[in-house]
């Protein structure tokens, strides 16, 4: 097993019996104390982030990971089906596992899925997705003096603030990080 000094960003380690994705590491050596490694990591089962300090000689269990690009197929109540385009294997994930990712999934959309021990744990979206506006109020003529925005319901059911000129049927680009409007597609 590697020492804490050997842990790098992007690796998945086992901590307190749970898989954690390492997001950031810093090796520190204070003047009169022993060296330690400060690790910022995210629990892959629950999504909580935490900072943990390890002695530089502590050993960690690094879990083998596999990242595959899958295609979203369909949603059925609380399960979401993905297909591997190369092998046509179908993988189902629960709504709880997906979290907010489900708000940006469209049939045929590609996502990266992180597998640990052949079990899908997290789904990573592209930074922006294109979604169709299905419901939006009409803008008021003459209300263009400032950057006025209105709510719009997209094809996945998520609500986004868009400019007044966006109409039903338009396709808009939305940031998957914070759900903000980026522009027309």
What is the level 1 CATH name of the largest domain?
Mainly Beta
- Tally of alpha and pi helices: 1
β-strand number:
15
What is the domain tally?
3
What series of H and E elements makes up the topology? EEEEEEEEHEEEEEEE
Q: Low-confidence runs (pLDDT<50, min 5 residues)?
A: none
Biggest sheet features: 5 strands, antiparallel
CATH third-level topology of the largest domain: SH3 type barrels
Please identify, by name, the CATH architecture of the largest domain.
Roll
Q: What is the strand content?
A: over 45%
**What is the arithmetic mean of pLDDT?**
87
Morphology: flat
- Write down the Rg: 21 Å
Q: Order of strands across the widest beta sheet?
A: 4-3-2-1-5
Distance between the termini: 48 Å
- Range of helix content: under 10%
Q: What structural class should be given to the helix and strand makeup?
A: mainly beta
